[in-house]
Design goal:
204 residues, alpha/beta, Rossmann fold, six-stranded mixed beta sheet, three-stranded antiparallel beta sheet, 6 helices, 29% helix
Length: 204
């Protein structure tokens, strides 16, 4: 069976409307409650390098109006690019400054935020949202989160992330209302770190 035939035979969600609604609610809940772990229970047929929640987010949020940048690891898998184009008609871009979304296969190789769209004072929403696959959401170093949607502080234990992740997030917060938003994904779970959140390192 050809690659295109495989793609046609696996059309993402079994029930596209209900599944997309469910995933969208999960993403909105994650953004409203930064640091809270949301489970995306909707199964999606997708290339194996995409975690279930990554695929579900792509099926729900990507479309012909959202240029998508994928990192070198994902770009090396032709099936991923074909799947993204087929499922949502999402245009792929090699220019990170044009990307509405960026797909990153591992938090350890998180690219610099500065090369992506950061929005403008007039249109802060014209920025890149990162979808980043991580090894764990409950076994990494403590990250202390504070800001809108959080009562007091909360703790996130995502890993593996770059050694300077906290510095990057603090620089990103300083740009507010500009800046990027992150969705950290592990398996069928995701956590949102919007640009409005202050991130600090916990004690080692």
């Amino acid at each position: 069976m050809t690659l295109q035939a495989n793609l046609v035979s696996s059309r993402g969600f079994a029930d596209p409307v209900l599944s997309s609604q469910s995933v969208f609610r999960g993403v909105m809940n994650a953004l409203a409650r930064p640091g809270s772990i949301q489970t995306v229970a909707e199964a999606a047929h997708a290339p194996s390098r995409l975690m279930p929640a990554t695929a579900a987010v792509a099926l729900t949020l990507f479309d012909h109006d959202t240029p998508v940048w994928i990192d070198d690891h994902f770009a090396a898998d032709a099936e991923i690019a074909s799947w993204l184009r087929f499922q949502g008609d999402a245009p792929l871009t090699a220019d990170p400054s044009r990307a509405a979304f960026a797909l990153v296969h591992s938090g350890a190789t998180l690219p610099d935020f500065e090369i992506f769209a950061l929005g403008t004072p007039e249109y802060p929403d014209r920025s890149t949202t990162f979808v980043v696959q991580v090894d764990t959401l409950n076994g990494g170093q403590d990250l202390i989160l504070e800001g809108p949607g959080i009562r007091g502080t909360s703790v996130l234990r995502a890993g593996k992330l770059p050694f300077d992740f906290v510095d990057r997030m603090q620089a990103n917060r300083a740009l507010f209302p500009r800046g990027i938003d992150l969705l950290l994904v592990c398996g069928a779970e995701l956590v949102a770190l919007p640009r409005s959140i202050h991130v600090a390192a916990g004690e080692v």
